[in-house]
Amino acid sequence: MELADWADLFVMSLWNHRCYVTEADQRLSEIQGLLELSLQRSSCERDLHKDQLFVYVKEHAVMPLSTFATGTSTVVPHGVRSFSFIGLGYRVDWPINIILTPSALKLYADIFSFLIQVKLAAFSLADVWCSLKDSMDLISQNRHSILHGLKIQHFHILIKTRHQVNHFVSTLQQYVQSHLSYVSWCRFLESLNHKVKDMMDLETVHMTYLIDSLHICFLSDETRTVASIIESILQCALDFRFCLTGGTWEVKQDQGDAFSKLSKINITQITEMKMGLLYKIIGGFALVLAIKRAFDKNLKELHLCYLKSPKHGEFGLSRFWGYLNYNEYYSDANEIGKSW
User: Fold this and answer.
1) Which contiguous run of DSSP H or E holds residue 73?
2) Nearest to 192 by CA among 182, 209, 205
3) Is the pTM of this model over 0.85?
4) Residue 89: CB partners within 8 Å, gap ≥ 6?
5) 201-228, pLDDT tens digit by residue?
6) For residue 30, what are the CA distances in angstroms to 26, 41, 154?
7) For residues 142 and 148, is the Cβ–Cβ distance under 8 A?
8) 166-193, pLDDT tens digit by residue?
């Protein structure tokens, strides 16, 4: 199960089936079925231990408040914490349960919840890119429209915003996966071979591995501020997708305007009046700009945390920011928080 392709399938199934905490208890068996189906369709189909994985509803699970880019906190189904109520469990027997204690398994579940958030952001940005590619064709077909110049300007800003958010999310995903699957894991295996002589040593080595994993995912007590900022940035990715593909913003394409698909960010159906069309494009586009401002604000806060953080160690914000700012990405044209 080390390839973890089953996890991608499982998160995508949750996303498509819209399994939310408001109905978690009633749909727990269905969610368990999604997990089992994902395992069967993955590379670990014949893994002898796959049946030991199970899902459960965490205690005191509540529908989280998602602060949209406008600054208003509301209960929405597209929040980055939409599936945080789900705990991933693993059945263990004696003597393994001496090492994999309930508290240790809870830490694994917390790490899995964080990885779900990262996956949701990545999936959202992939959907955004598909929508933008479709809109690009529609805009080019209607290049003689009076509002063509405005459409091109707005479209370029959407592309740039998606690129900047995707750079952060993809870098975070690569950093977390490489350090969890390779760096810390290889260190753990090496410790097993050279440091473990009895059960006490095994417990110590395993706990060290878990602590390293928490630091990698910014889930330790020392990185709570960083974790909160990262979660806000991941939420920007889901908000962006909701603007372009969410049903609340859907418009009909019966106005003869090829730009209508991009204009899903408008609240109501486009009218034939040019001023009304222009007003709705600008009004809806303001929401995308709000997402961009929220992203810039959180990125600045993360940079401040980086400046104050220790600049040594294999894990943590310093190492992640090094990947994020690779090749001086945030200098010159890509300056942090640069506005248009």
Assistant:
1) strand 73-74
2) 205
3) no
4) 53, 54, 55, 56, 105, 109
5) 999 999 999 999 999 999 999 899 999 9
6) 9, 16, 42
7) yes
8) 999 999 999 998 898 888 888 989 988 9
